[in-house]
Write the structure tokens for this entry.
Amino acid sequence: MILTLQIILVITSLLMGFSVLLHKGKGGGLSAVFGGGMQSNLSGSTVAEKNLDRLTIVTAVLWFLSIVGLNLVLNFNL
């Protein structure tokens, strides 16, 4: 059980890192300082961006649940 939760935690951590890095910058902040704010946003969010948002949210929820589950298993020996 512990090994399964640890594997899920590692996989979701990697997926969440990749999905966050794939997101397009929304302008302003540090991305604008380094030239990221030069792009013009002529269209709204695309289907790919919406799917990437959904993937990130689902991955974050699974990541959170695996942390909580791992904590419960280690603390209460379930």
In short: DSSP finds three helices and no strands in the chain. The CA atoms of residues 18 and 56 lie 9 Å apart. The mean pLDDT is 82.
